[in-house]
Amino acid sequence: xxxxxxxxxxARSTFGDPGVHAVVRAGRTVHAVSLGQWIGEEExxxxxxxxxxxxxxxxxLVPTRAAVTCARCLRRLGGPIDQSRQLPLFGxxxx
Length: 95
What we know:
Layout (H helix, E strand, L loop, with lengths): L4 H10 L6 E4 L8 E5 L5 E5 L13 E4 L6 H7 L18
Antiparallel strand pairs: 1-4, 2-3
């Protein structure tokens, strides 16, 4: 079995500073990040909103210092939600 602790440690250090958030791959939505159980006893960064990341790999989360735009993350943080900043998933009604 491969020791994943160095990989988990690198992922934790990438998102360890306050104010570092994440986008998923080339996404536009900025998520808050927390530590969660990954494999065995190892902890790794995960999206605070618990949105799934298909094919998760340590490189799927890209660090950013941009403001969080995910409404679910903002709700979990207890802050105000600016609906104009939440990106639409689909076209507007009536299209």
